[in-house]
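Q: I have 222 residues here and want to know how they pack in 3D. Can you give me a structure?
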Amino acid sequence: MTAFAPILARARKRVGGADSLEGELPAPKGDAELRAVSDDRYLSLMSLRAFRAGLKHSLVDARWPAFEEVFHRFDPHRVRLMSDEDLERLMGEKRIIRHWGKIKAVRENAAAVVAIFDAGGSVGAYLADWPATDIIGLWADLAKRFRQMGGNSGPYFLRMAGRDTFMFTGDVVRALINAGVVTKKPTTRDERAAVQAAFNAWADETGRPLCQLSRILALSVG
């Protein structure tokens, strides 16, 4: 596996220097910031990511105020109690995107959020407490615990929420291949474990968060 220093050097060269590169890098939220966000906002973000999948983001974003209204500002306790009839009526609500599977997923995810609350926790604490050295595990747990959070949706939700994570964009995958971490897009358990190990090593080497390592990888090739 390649050390991160040459990857960083290539990214700096491609974007016009160290200062230009630093201006391109995201900053994750800290644990306290993640914990301070209320569960309704996380349910809203999760739902926004689900409805954005496969659609132009601006189209979904323009309709989001109506989603907030019909889903009770995403109060998880209220959404969990919405009846099948309530959800069916939303299929006639022209102000929102009427996708039955995703509409049902909002209620199911509200129930999952309430389950975390009933266990004495919160979504913010759940995200903050998950170790950065096992982000792949968090992706898997999101997909298991919540609906519509499989594939790329889990990582994108984490990025939207400010939780530190890397991403499997095309450029990141190309950079991982160039670095000798994988030979193709990582899909198997072993391939993803190899990627996690590489990011853990690079984080130790550089002291940078995963989201910055991911962005630098992407900028080093694209």
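Q: Anything worth noting?
A: DSSP finds 14 helices and no strands in the chain. The chain has a mean pLDDT of 97.
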